[in-house]
Amino acid sequence: MRKFGFLLVLFLFVLAFPLTGHAASKATHIFLNGNEIDLSQDTQVQIVNNSVMIPIRVVVEELGFNVVWDSKTSTVTIQKSDTVIKLFINKSTATVNGKTVKLAAAPFIKNNTTFVPLRFVSEQMGLSVTWDNTTKTANLYTQNSGSSGDGTEGTGGTPEQTENLTSLTGLSFSNNQLILAVDGKVSPVTSTLTNPDRIVIDLPNVKFGADFASQLPLDSTQNGQIAVTDYPDVSKIRYSLFKSSPSTVRIVLDLNYAKGFELTNQNDGLVIMDLNKDSDPAPGPTSPESSGKKLVVIDAGHGGSDPGAISVTGRKEKDFTLAVVLKVEKLLQNEPELSYVLTRSGDTYPTLSDRSKLANNLKADVFVSVHGNSGSALATGVDTFYTRSDSLALANIMHKYLVQATGLKDRKVQQASLHVTRETTMPAVLLECGFLSNKSDEAKMFSEDFQERVAEGIVAGIKEYLGIH
Fold this sequence. Notes:
With 469 residues, the protein is of the alpha+beta class. The chain folds into three domains: 4-141, Copper Amine Oxidase, Chain A, domain 1; 160-281, Immunoglobulin-like (Sandwich); 286-469, Aminopeptidase. 23% of the residues lie in helices and 35% in strands. The chain is built from twelve helices and 30 strands. The strands form six sheets. A six-stranded mixed β-sheet has the order 26-25-27-30-28-29, sandwiched between helices. A five-stranded antiparallel β-sheet has the order 1-4-5-12-11. A five-stranded antiparallel β-sheet has the order 6-7-8-9-10. Residues 2-21, 143-163 and 279-290 have low confidence and may be disordered.
């Protein structure tokens, strides 16, 4: 699984030794499609031979590539789509799809963290890279971002108009809540219409993000829609570029009958429209205090443009995780003492930051992220990961049920610094439900019976932890 390049750094790179001549660069900034990547203290970059070297955690969590570590050969394998890069610790050559290439700086291990060359990895994966030596800033752009410094990505406006636009990067609907992810400040304007009943949300000075179309339907005229089948209030959600000057995205919820709502916008990257509550109470997302229920956030790992790990037969981790989470959702619908929200209910990609912010904004009681692991062909079993000590009790309970549900090898509860378990403020765990790289594990993981048992185990674990009978 891609994020465990960093995990493996912590647990497998025991042969690390101090290196000399590697200068830390605390002032370096890295932007991906105009959004700054969080370089916290544990992800400081290094400068070697005028090359920016980044920790594996940045490659895994922020750039979204799959990473596998081979301790026997000291090899880091980075993969996305059809591109496979193999980097060798302390060697100035690498391979790209089997072809040997020369590196300006060799990967190395320092303070139990593996560093790899930013420009080389990014460009091989199809990103364009620019470097501003004055500000020590690296700018990365995906091929479809339309960003090359001119700020004219697809709105028809002038550079001055488009540079200040906020992007709508994601949209999802679960638990009767519309959740919008944006990369800047927004000022939503809402209205209700009748004959038929509709709720309209206009987002002035907003455009569709570069990757939006890879996650949700969006045609050449920038119109799209998704059907809603699991909630009786809403039949369909439509969205479009309503105006080009100023750029305005309009979202319409087609209702089956008139319905009140609450809109929460704290300009923190998420806009939440809650149809579970009327508009009379004070604005705010559904919380345990207001509903009398315990609130859980269930996260299907990866999604959209990020497939996650690719299984031994070519299946995608994102499909496995969503299948399990949708089964969890059906079970939670029958739990009157629990309220829940899914970070995604379709093939979309909320960023890691979006997922943790959602749970924090909702003041959830529990956060559970579902994943599938990847490693050698012989690796098998299940793991449960947590970061903060207040999550250990939840991790122990969830792992007990995960082992029982899967019947796979018990790889124990482990502590690791993973974004969604580190940045959430409530007890949070990440479940690895088997190895997609193992033929036997994979066959079980994509069976309905296995997924149903895992879903039942997740719900049973949550109920035991929260004291619900």
